[in-house]
């Protein structure tokens, strides 16, 4: 073995030791991907061609360093801003050096309310978010940019639409409305009632009570008249009026019935109320009275209370009144050849000509993984395997050192012959 051949073996073994050492050092690094050096043998070109006979090799070279992009273990952390990618993809982040890509989902808000990772790199996403809060979505649109989180109070919304679906008992007694006209303070003038909270333009809640009266002699099945009464939080009646008349077919399905609740003056000084009340899913049967569905588009004002990350990448602001608002959608990137990515400090990679350009889409689309909130992806380093590899690399290093020592001794003996 020549000295130069042994030196190449020594250098290759050192590269192997360095790579294994780096893997072991990052066994606890979130989103870290282990690497493996690839070696190739070295042969000199012979002018004698194939007939020149076999020639010994001249050593070994490190041809490349392969990254293993298998997923690390996903661990629950309980932090709502921690997020792991369950499947393919990388977060796209804006660093001081430009665009980079990462699997590290330890996210936070900076002093400006911008979503960043724990190194301060800005997480890129869509300002026009994906619809829905679950794993299914309609793709987000618009240019990529930073996701700005506003912690301003949520303004109140006056109720303008109220959908109330109930089951009305056909067994209720029919009421002769000519003899017993409807009156809120007369329970004999109606059969059933239900209440719901509605909001004015200032966010002040009031209680809306809807009354149902089965009218005798109104047909078969009988019609049901509705009335309403609006009361303040203290129980004071604000306004009242007649609502829709509900008609049903012989199967108990609603055939007509909708109305408008109008309140011109409110004690809070809020704008007048005009509420479209519908009863679309209301039924008539022998079952007891029950509210089967209720939908109210109004709400009181709310204070920002926290953030939630959805599987489809939506960043959802939560408010004290129970309302939510989507602030943006985190984008994920994928590459034709992830092996071509160039690792840089900060748990990041850079795109290269070998990796190809990044293809950007929302999570859960185009083969990308979904997001798992409150969790982080750990390193994919298998410590047991690395420790075994470390022993093998150390033996290779020692063997090459021994080979160099033997060559040195042979050279020394030749020098002594002169």
Distance between the terminal alpha carbons, to the nearest Å? 22 Å
Class of secondary structure makeup: mainly beta
Summarize the amount of helix as a percent range.
10-25%
The total strand number stands at 29
Question: Overall mean pLDDT score?
Answer: 88
Mind summarizing the main beta sheet? 11 strands, antiparallel
Topology:
Layout: H1 3-25, E1 35-42, E2 59-67, E3 74-76, E4 83-86, E5 90-95, E6 98-102, E7 107-109, E8 115-117, E9 122-128, E10 141-146, E11 161-169, E12 192-199, E13 205-214, E14 224-231, E15 237-248, E16 254-256, E17 258-263, E18 273-278, E19 283-285, E20 290-296, E21 304-309, E22 314-319, E23 324-330, E24 332-334, E25 342-344, E26 348-350, E27 359-361, E28 370-373, E29 375-377, H2 383-417
Parallel strand pairs: 11-18, 11-19
Antiparallel strand pairs: 1-2, 3-29, 4-28, 5-6, 5-9, 5-24, 6-26, 7-8, 9-10, 9-23, 11-20, 12-13, 13-14, 14-15, 15-16, 17-18, 21-22, 22-23, 24-27, 25-26
Which features characterize this protein?
single chain, 418 residues, mainly beta, Tick-borne Encephalitis virus Glycoprotein, domain 1, eleven-stranded antiparallel sheet, five-stranded mixed sheet, 39% strand, rod-shaped
